[in-house]
Structures are given as structure tokens and as C-alpha cells.
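Thread: Modeling a multi-component assembly for a lab meeting

Hi all, long-time lurker, first post. My supervisor asked me to bring a structural picture of a complex we are working on to next week's group meeting, and I have zero experience with this. I have the sequence lines for every component (248 residues in total). Could someone generate the structure of the whole assembly? Inputs are pasted exactly as I received them:
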Amino acid sequence: MIALSEIDQARFGIVIARATVKTVAEREEALAFCARHGVELLIARMPALTPFLGQPLLAEGALLTDTLCVFSRASLPEDALFEAPADIVFRRASPKDAEAVALLAARAFHDYPNHYWADPNLDRDACNAVLPDWGSRLCASDGKTVSWIAEGEGNVVGFLGSDCGAPDVTHLGLGMVEEDWRGRGILLDLLRCQLSFDASRGAVRTLYPTQLWNMASLRCAVRLGYIPMEGYHTVHHWFPARSRPSAG
Ligand SMILES: CC(C)(COP(=O)(O)OP(=O)(O)OC[C@H]1O[C@@H](n2cnc3c(N)ncnc32)[C@H](O)[C@@H]1OP(=O)(O)O)[C@@H](O)C(=O)NCCC(=O)NCCS
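Re: Modeling a multi-component assembly
Sure thing. I ran the full set together rather than chain by chain. Output:
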């Protein structure tokens, strides 16, 4: 499965395609697609179970930029008591929260080592703008995204945004907590809000992808009974025919 990524093209000013590659044939199809469309950077996600899929690209100088672990849990109501202090208010996000969420994300994810940031060819400011932009888009009332805000002392101090576009499964997206408010159970309670909502809308499963190095995030998944289901490597393959942008 491969497509040109307009959003990445707008962010970085080059032709970028994103692919999920699960077989050798899909890898070859992806490379042929890139040749046809003048792609400069291919961002390919490949099951970690089959590392050989990425090896020919790595041998040509592609970068291994990220490893994701995807956890899964049945969407049952969470009856555990909320853990965060009682003066923290949990509510649904709305488009009015977009700016505060983007600012929170800019702080929480500054120089965050995701697959964009791990690629030294990409502009640092553009990398740092990716997750704030995603956070603000997750506040949209588009009938697809569902997001939660934790409010402390009248400010947005925590956020969790998800894709609920499919009837049976929720894909958790972005989770973050303001630095001074961490370690109080806020992310766990945001996850409980989402699990209860998923149960009420009849979703069967909630999927929780996170970086393999992110111990805080991994521990939150384990604390709530999520089970590791799949692992993915992300590979950035630059095509040599075109010159690369200079990193800022
Ligand atoms: C990840 C993050 C959202 C956690 O938020 P939080 O509200 O502090 O988390 P909680 O207080 O609910 O903690 C939940 C569990 O994670 C553990 N944890 C929290 N921070 C941790 C850290 N820095 N290292 C290891 N474990 C940590 C806690 O110990 C707790 O488990 P425990 O109760 O069994 O001890 C927060 O650290 C953050 O915003 N980080 C930057 C952005 C980020 O990495 N987001 C996740 C992207 S996938």
C-alpha cells in the first residue's frame, strides 16, 4: 500500500510517498511507484518480524528511523478509579482547544525522536512542527476524531487524540502531558476516558502504537492491560537522482 503524502510534501517541500510494505512484491511495487512519480523520499513502514524486507534499502543507504510497537486491548469500560488528583477536569476536546493543544504539543514533543526527527536530512523546525500540527487537527469536529483534554488550574495540561473513523476499532494517536503535571496518572485517566467511550460506541478494540524506546508510554499501555500485538520498523529511503534539501 503506497501513496504520495501531500501533508509531508507541504511540510518539507519535497515529493514524499508513504508505504506499508509487508512482502517483497510490495517493496518492489513501492520502488516502482516512486520511480514513476519522481518521489524523493520514501517513508516505508515494515513489519519488524520480517527485517529482510528493509535490508536491500538499508544496504543502499536508507535510514532505519523508528520502531513502533502496537498494543491492543478490548474496548471494555474501565471501572478502575481515576488516579489523577480530583481537581483535574477531564472533558472532550473541541476545535476551540486547537491552539492550546498545538502549544502543548510544541513543548511536549520538542526534538522528540520520531521517524522524522531521526532523519538528519529533514529540516529540524519542520520536524518539530509535525506533532503540534497533528494535535491541532485532532481537535477537529469531523465525526472521525475523538480527543480528550485534561484541565488543571484552568489550563490544558494533558491531551489524548484518536481516530475513531472505523466502527469497530479505535487508533490512538497523540498523547501528551505538560511536564510539570507528569507522574500523576493524567495519561492513564485520559486513556480510561477513551476506553469507556470506545465501549459505549461499540468499538471492539483499541490500538495503541508507541515508540519502542518510550518507557513512560509503554508503561501506561501495560498498566491498562494492553497487549503487544505488532512491531514495525520505519525506513527512510532517499532517491539519489534528486538533490536533498539542506537541513536547517
Ligand atoms: C508519556 C506521558 C504522556 C506520560 O504522561 P503522565 O501523565 O506523566 O503518565 P502517568 O502519570 O499517567 O504515568 C503512567 C505510568 O507511566 C510511568 N511513567 C511516567 N513517566 C515515566 C517516565 N519518564 N519513565 C518511566 N515511566 C514513566 C509511571 O510510572 C506510571 O506507571 P506506574 O503508575 O506503574 O508507576 C508524558 O511523559 C509525556 O507527555 N511525554 C512526552 C510526550 C510523549 O512521549 N508522549 C507519548 C507518545 S507515544
